[in-house]
Design the sequence.
């Protein structure tokens, strides 16, 4: 009996064909007509009619002789595969107007494996069987189907269908992990989904996992990154679920073990801190801001928000990140020494601080800026600091919009 030829096809997130574990290419560009013909024959093992192939391959292109064009492509494919190192074989079977891969070819394809695992998962009546198959499906899916061909109609149709299946699998798997309180795996699957599709809201599961794993700093960074992504690129707010997680995070960061050293420093230097601004995490800053607005609304005190931004442009290398962090720590210390005990500040991002200045006139805010510059450890650093000042809106205190101006200033609006 003639031995089957096994072709391994990767079509999710990347395009790659392997024979005996080694990649092979038939033409340098995966988007050529010959490559597209191979991709279709592999993905549709039951075959396609000539008309279907013509529509998929040429779409709206004007072809003088369609029959001759198809014959030429099949001929090129049959010649190209042995030339790429595969055994001699007909490879393309044409019968009664239907084109399919030769029956002597066994195809292993990640797209099939994903679809089969997803199907088994949602047909399972046992939760453990469903869990196992969902894990296989989510591990197998590594990105859009044939990503280099996103402008081709048949590819887009498959991309959308598989993406919907992936979304369904991820959501179900995350919910099962939550039921089992398996937060390590919840983080892994939601983090992967977020990396693949950052605009789809998987950050809420990822953030919940980080909070339950007692990693508040990582959770806060994820929130900040998500907020910048959603507002900066889409003009949208973060999801209500992310905001709920932020509330939980604020409580954790108040009492979290990794904040003990900072709390101890605050206790040991209580007198010194009373003479300078109050430093806190950004989630606590937000909640404190809401409360302070309600208090000062009665007294009609003036209050201002100041954003201090380090605008020094550095490449994202470990050495430069260390330099930026050192710079930011210097700025934080300068802010503390330049503000009063009733003022409050927080580090919003790696290069930004937000400051609440109470009972102060606008013209005096300029003096605060000057003091911050003066208190920097290095004179040259003040060249890289930018300041933005806006008034606190007391009229929206106690409403759902009580942090609007705070959100505006950190977003640069």
Sequence:
């Amino acid at each position: 009996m003639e031995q089957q030829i096994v072709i391994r096809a990767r079509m999710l997130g990347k395009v790659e064909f392997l024979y005996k574990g080694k990649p092979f290419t038939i033409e340098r560009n995966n988007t050529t007509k010959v490559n597209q013909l191979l991709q279709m024959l592999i993905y549709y093992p039951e075959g396609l009619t000539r008309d279907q192939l013509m529509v998929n391959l040429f779409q709206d292109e004007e072809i003088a002789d369609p029959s001759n064009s198809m014959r030429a492509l099949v001929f090129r494919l049959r010649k190209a595969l042995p030339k790429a190192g595969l055994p001699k074989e007909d490879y393309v079977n044409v019968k009664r107007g239907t084109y399919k891969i030769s029956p002597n070819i066994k195809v292993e394809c990640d797209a099939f494996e994903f679809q089969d695992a997803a199907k088994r998962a949602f047909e399972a009546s046992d939760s453990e069987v469903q869990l196992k198959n969902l894990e296989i499906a989510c591990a197998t899916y590594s990105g859009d189907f044939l990503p280099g061909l996103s402008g081709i109609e048949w590819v887009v149709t498959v991309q959308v269908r598989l993406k919907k299946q992936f979304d369904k699998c991820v959501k179900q798997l995350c919910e099962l992990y939550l039921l089992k309180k398996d937060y390590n795996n919840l983080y892994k699957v939601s983090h992967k989904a977020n990396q693949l599709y950052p605009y789809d809201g998987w950050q809420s599961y990822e953030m919940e996992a980080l909070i339950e794993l007692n990693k508040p700093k990582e959770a806060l960074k994820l929130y900040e990154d998500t907020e910048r992504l959603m507002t900066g690129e889409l003009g949208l707010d973060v999801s209500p679920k992310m905001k709920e997680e932020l509330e939980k995070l604020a409580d954790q960061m108040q009492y979290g073990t990794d904040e003990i050293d900072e709390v101890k420093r605050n206790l040991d230097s209580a007198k010194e801190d009373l003479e300078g601004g109050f430093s806190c995490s950004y989630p606590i800053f937000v909640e404190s801001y809401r409360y302070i607005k309600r208090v000062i609304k009665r007294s009609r005190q003036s209050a201002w928000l100041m954003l201090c931004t380090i605008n020094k442009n550095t490449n994202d290398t470990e050495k430069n990140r260390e330099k930026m962090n050192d710079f930011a720590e210097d700025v934080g210390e300068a802010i503390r020494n330049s503000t009063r005990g009733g003022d409050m500040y927080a580090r919003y991002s790696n290069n930004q601080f937000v400051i609440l200045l109470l009972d102060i006139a606008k013209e005096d805010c300029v003096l605060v800026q000057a003091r911050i510059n003066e208190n920097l450890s290095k004179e040259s650093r003040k060249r890289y600091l930018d300041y933005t000042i806006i008034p606190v809106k007391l009229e929206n205190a106690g409403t759902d919009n009580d942090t609007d101006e705070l959100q505006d200033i950190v977003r640069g609006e």
Q: What stands out?
A: The chain has three domains: 5-109, 110-148+168-255, 277-411. Residues 110-148+168-255 form a domain with the Serine Threonine Protein Phosphatase 5, Tetratricopeptide repeat fold (CATH 1.25.40.10). The two ends are 72 Å apart (CA to CA). Confidence is low (pLDDT under 50) at residues 255-274.
